[in-house]
Amino acid sequence: MHHKIWLSWSSGKDCAYALHRLRLEQRYTVTALLTSLDRMSGRVAMHGTPEELVRRQAIELGLPLHYVMAEDSERQHQQLRDLLTKASQEGVEGVAFGDLFLEDVRAYREEKMKETGISTLFPLWEIPTRELANNIIQEGFKAIITSVDLRVLPLTYLGRSFDAQFLQDLPAHVDPCGERGEFHTFVYDGPIFHNPVSLCVGQTNTQGDFAHLQFASR
Asked: Is 127 left (phi over 0), alpha (psi -120 to 50) or beta?
């Protein structure tokens, strides 16, 4: 029996690989992507992905895209509850997340989902992150580094490809998948995409301890 689920979509490598794993398992049918956008910037927080590129990803993945975008977290949560309540009425049973090992993040998501009656899935949970990072690369996913925490990585890592050389160059204290927020990615190609997502890269923007890559659809 296939269970209809949505996938929480940040635009990065982990959620993309989660979709890949879910499709290979064939127990679940991912019927839509769900993302949150910052209302002021129109971008995915931390990753910095503009709405236009998230939509391009959804098109190349062959999935509809739903998103929440509000002025504050309370209104955003209300939008999410309304959206998932409707999804539940239409037969959606759960939302999958690409989280890897942070217990507090998982607990937060599970608590928020309780309000909607929708279950949670974590298809990548506790896969060793070095193994996971290597699998993502070896199975053909292409991603670029769109954000770095300057407290743990220098600016030179911004804009690099997420590849074997990147992993080799990472300092030992940095998680290979950036699960603690050391870096974030945008995935533009891989076995789940019909066609690569074209993008053009611009300047960098530094805000406090973080540097972000300015990029847009080509």
From this structure: beta
Q: Which residues contact 165 (CB under 8 A, 6 or more apart)?
A: none
Please state, in angstroms and rounded to a whole number, the distance separating the CA atoms of residues 161 and 145. Answer: 6
User: Residue 144: pLDDT band by 50, 70, 90 thresholds?
Assistant: very high
User: What angle, 0 to 180 degrees and rounded to 10, lies between the N-to-C axes of helices 73-89 and 103-114?
Assistant: 60
Domains in the chain: how many in total? 2
pLDDT digits (tens, 9 = 90+) for 168-191: 999 999 999 999 999 999 999 999
Look up the domain containing 9 and give its range.
3-121
- Percent helix, strand and coil across the chain, each to the nearest 5: 35, 30, 40
The structure tokens listed for 25 are 């398992």
Average pLDDT, integer, range 143-155: 97
Partner residues linked to 32 by β-bridges? 6
Q: How far apart are the first and last CA of the chain?
A: 40
The more confidently predicted of residues 125 and 82 is 125
Which of 96, 121, 146 is the last residue before a domain boundary? 121
pLDDT of residue 70: 63
Assign residue 56 the CATH number of its domain: 3.40.50.620
Model pTM score: 0.94
